[in-house]
Amino acid sequence: MKKFVLLFALSANFVFAQFTDIKVIKEIHSKDRGLVVSAHPLASEAGAKVLKMGGNAFDAVIATQYALAVVYPQAGNIGGGGFLVGVKNNGEKFTIDFRETAPEKASRDMYLDKKGHANTDLSQNGRLAVGIPGSVAGFFATLKYAKLPMEKLIQPAIDLAEMGFPVTDREANLLNDQMEFFDRHNINKTVFQKEKWKAGDILVQKDLAETLKRIQKNGAKGFYEGKTADLIIAEMKRGNGILTLNDLKNYKVAERKPMVFDYKGNEIVSMPLPSSGGILLAQMLKMASFENLDKLQQNSAEAVQIMVEAERRAFADRAEFMGDPDFTQDQTSMLISDEYLKNRWKSFQKNEATPSSEVGKIISQPKESKETTHISIIDKEGNAVAVTTTLNGLYGSKVVVSGAGFFLNNEMDDFSIKPGVPNMFGAVGGEANSIKPGKRMLSSMTPTIVLKSGKPFIIVGTPGGTTIPTSVFQSIVNVVDFKLNPNLAVNLPKFHHQWLPESVLVERGFPETAIKELEKKGYQFERVSQIGRTEMIVMDEDGGAIAVADGRGDDSVAVE
């Protein structure tokens, strides 16, 4: 029997556009039907539509990503990049790395002034912040696992861009908040610039529709060559951008061996370098397993301390060891080995916090940003896919390609623009993540699939910069150790620590009793409004699946 649970619905009826009935569905329990969870209801519906057309999970994830590029411009994209983790119903595991790369004219010190000081404005805003986009190449790399042609998979996005859709209240507020940056960094006016956006305003993107049609007609060359490529380079020349036609033409995705490890009899499949997420997840879960988490209560002081200390040690290793494995020594096997982690854990003390100074040099950190987007999908045949993509910051570099209609990333900021200087997410890096032409910048994105007895059990991921690995860590522990239902696992208050700064972030509503108890042990806390927006699918005992979209945003579930 199929159950459909509608926790929250928001609908609007307008007369000027086709896509005006937006329903945000937060949870669906279904058996023998595919499920799609993403950051926007119209994108989830695009994926579900493809499943109904006979497509599989990989068809659906392509369609959902293209749709997000239209309806979720703050992070959905064709001008950025990401990572995909897939598990086919025959047990085959694979990853696709379509992370952005540094242009051929990039250099190690390109963001330093004459005195050697890092200029983070240049790495975070405007044309010089742009890495070579990988998303479109990633969609085409996914196509070999799909069943339907790209022409059909991209059509829902074209329709959304061409006919328009009403912006949500959240999107309207974000557009208004960023208007100053759009005005500053775009010479030609964009469709995103107007006096004031409000919920229900129709966003029509004709230029983006034409860009998508060129991809539909000419394949990946419709983006990396021809008119779209020319428009990207023309945009570069309006400022200090360094991308070239050669950069675009030569971009390549990388299919990498998945990060696979055991956690309490479950097989975790996640992303390897240049994502730090898979390594961090392995380190945190393994270190936490040295204690009896399953005997503790979720968000209790005892459980939080164990998990925070695991996070602290893992992020210290991130800064020192992690980077693009094609350019620096890959030390994954050492970092996740039991011997190394048991030695790392020896300094854990239940009666006090471990000072971060004991695991690395203290450096002042800036405030974090949290803009990325995640999709979790399972189809009725048992294929599972988790994909996380990003422009990096909110609306990326704030630059829209004039005549092509899409935002470009500011992903160059994810390099160590100067070893020891933190990026916009507060992450510190060293030489392993320094800038070199063709190099992929280190990422925190952590799309993850958990298998039980070889079959998908949990599909999970989230946006949130450096909070991504810790949110995925907590989500898995919530289900596996604390036995929470998927809705609680996603929506209960989360916490985050990343070695530097010293403080532990906690969402509003986090138990004050736990905070007070941990403060007595020397922990410092900072209260924040939100950590991530987790999209999770969990298989239940009766052979069905429960899909949950995070209550922190407009995230929504759709069913085949």
TrEMBL record:
GO terms for molecular function: glutathione hydrolase activity; leukotriene C4 gamma-glutamyl transferase activity. Pathway: Sulfur metabolism; glutathione metabolism. GO terms for biological process: glutathione biosynthetic process; glutathione catabolic process. L-glutamate binds at R99, T390, L391, N392, D414, S443, S444, G465. Belongs to the gamma-glutamyltransferase family. PANTHER family: GLUTATHIONE HYDROLASE, GLUTATHIONE HYDROLASE PROENZYME. This is Glutathione hydrolase proenzyme.
